[in-house]
Each structure stands twice: as C-alpha cells, then as structure tokens.
Amino acid sequence: MVKIENVSKAQKNQDKENNKQANGVVQVQSSKDLTPEISSENSVKENQFRNHETKRIMRDYSSDLIENLLSNEHFYWTKNCLQNHNIPANIRAKMIDWMVEVLCSYKCTNETFFVAVYYLDAFFKNSTINYEIND
Fold first, then answer.
1. Tens-place pLDDT, residues 36-59
2. Which one of 16, 62, 115, 134 has the lowest number of neighbouring Cβ atoms within 10 Å?
3. Is residue 102 a contact partner of residue 112, using CB atoms and an 8 Å limit?
4. Range 82-86 contact pairs with CB under 8 angstroms and sequence separation of 24 or more
5. Is the pTM of this model over 0.85?
6. Number of Cα atoms under 13 Å in the Cβ half of residue 52
7. What distances in angstroms separate CA 119 from CA 19, 40, 66, 113, one per listed residue?
8. Distances (CA, A) of 127 to 23, 25, 87
C-alpha cells in the first residue's frame, strides 16, 4: 500500500531549491527584477520641464540662430566650387563615385558620404592653388 502525503506548495518549492543547490545549479534573478522602479510621475514631470525649457530656448534664441546662419551661408556654400580650377564636372563625378566605393567598403553611413562630398567641394572652393587634370 502507497502512503500519500499532503505537502504544501511552499514545501515543494523549498525542496526544489534545495535540490538545485545540491546539484550546483544556481538561479540568477533577472536584472529587470533588480532595478528600482522609476516613478512615472517623476519622469512625466522631467519631460514636461524639458519640453518647457526647449520651447523657451527656441523662443528666445531661434531668430538669432537663423539670422546668424543666413548671414554666414555664403561662406559655407560650395556651389561653383570648380570654377577656379581646370577640372570638369565629370571628373568630380568620378571622384564622388570612388568615394561611394570606399565608404561602402567601410560600411559608413549616408551622413558620412554627404560630409565627405561637402569637404571635397569646400576644399576646391577654398584652395588658392589652381588644380588641373594630369592623366
């Protein structure tokens, strides 16, 4: 005859823990359980403060920033960058194609490509040496 014992759930869980520890198995609590909960009220107040400050700064300084950018735009404009050089536009296009190949091989972002093209054009615009093609 088999004897059936009534064992509570807590006792069963405790027995499982003891068996795991005896077998060298260690349970690790997830980091989510260990991190303190951030009050949603504090984060909402912080976001409201940031939004208010951003609006205040934009209201106070946006016109000055735009005016400054527009007044200095001619300095940064790279249109007609090849006019002082004996380099045709198709050679510039070949240089840009080469830049695309290099940037793709290094897995660079699109922004890197545009900055590189800007630097190329700015170099030609601001250089005092007259460059020519030497094929």
1. 555 577 788 888 888 888 888 888
2. 134
3. no
4. 82/124, 84/124, 84/125, 84/127, 84/130, 85/124, 85/127, 85/130, 85/131, 85/132, 86/130, 86/131, 86/132, 86/133
5. no
6. 6
7. 67, 46, 23, 10
8. 74, 69, 13
